[in-house]
Design a protein that fits this description.
This protein is an all-alpha fold and 162 residues long. It contains five helices and no strands. The protein has one domain. Helix content is 86%, strand content 0%. α1 packs across α3, α2 packs across α5 and α4 runs antiparallel to α5. The chain is elongated and about 60 Å long. It holds the Pfam family Anthrone_oxy. It comes from Gloeobacter kilaueensis (strain ATCC BAA-2537 / CCAP 1431/1 / ULC 316 / JS1).
């Protein structure tokens, strides 16, 4: 399974996974902690703005492009299962697709939507914000770790292809 396109796809998936993992790492290690130190209305307003600005071609291109590459690599791993690198490709693809994309869709986006629906100055907003900080950040840790582990698996697949 050493075709050039497959090696190139795995390299791009490793780069995309690492880049996305780095974004999530930043949020987990200091962005959310900084927002938590603000008064709730300011923290809520800032996060609402972040959630609007993240919907842009550069971020979504890398985030969803890496998911698409992961899907291609998952299929390649299953169709070339006898190859030594197939397990790493499968692992990387599943980590990214389940641990990053699925977790984002199932856990982070619903919390973002709930936060978008509250007025930052409201009591409801303050209650939601306290829960949001805890729950959103927990799921962000999961997707950040999954993205970085996916990058490692893709790197191991590339390493094994030479």
């Amino acid at each position: 399974m050493t075709t050039d396109w497959l090696v190139s796809a795995a390299i791009l998936a490793a780069l995309g996974s690492g880049l996305i993992g780095g974004v999530f790492f930043a949020f987990s290690t200091f962005v959310m902690a900084a927002l938590a130190q603000l008064p709730p209305p300011q923290g809520i307003a800032a996060m609402q703005f972040v959630n609007i600005k993240v919907i842009n071609p550069l971020f979504l291109g890398v985030f969803l492009g890496t998911a698409l590459l992961s899907l291609v690599l998952l299929i390649a791993a299953l169709t070339h299962w006898q190859q030594a690198t197939a397990l790493y490709l499968l692992l990387g693809a599943l980590l990214y697709l389940v641990g990053t994309l699925f977790v984002t869709i199932a856990f982070n986006i619903p919390r973002n939507n709930a936060l978008a629906a509250v007025a930052p100055e409201s009591e409801e907003g303050a209650r939601l914000w306290k829960r949001y900080l805890r729950e959103w950040t927990l799921w962000n840790h999961v997707r950040g770790a999954a993205a970085l582990l996916a990058a490692a698996a893709f790197i191991l697949a590339v390493r094994g292809s030479f």
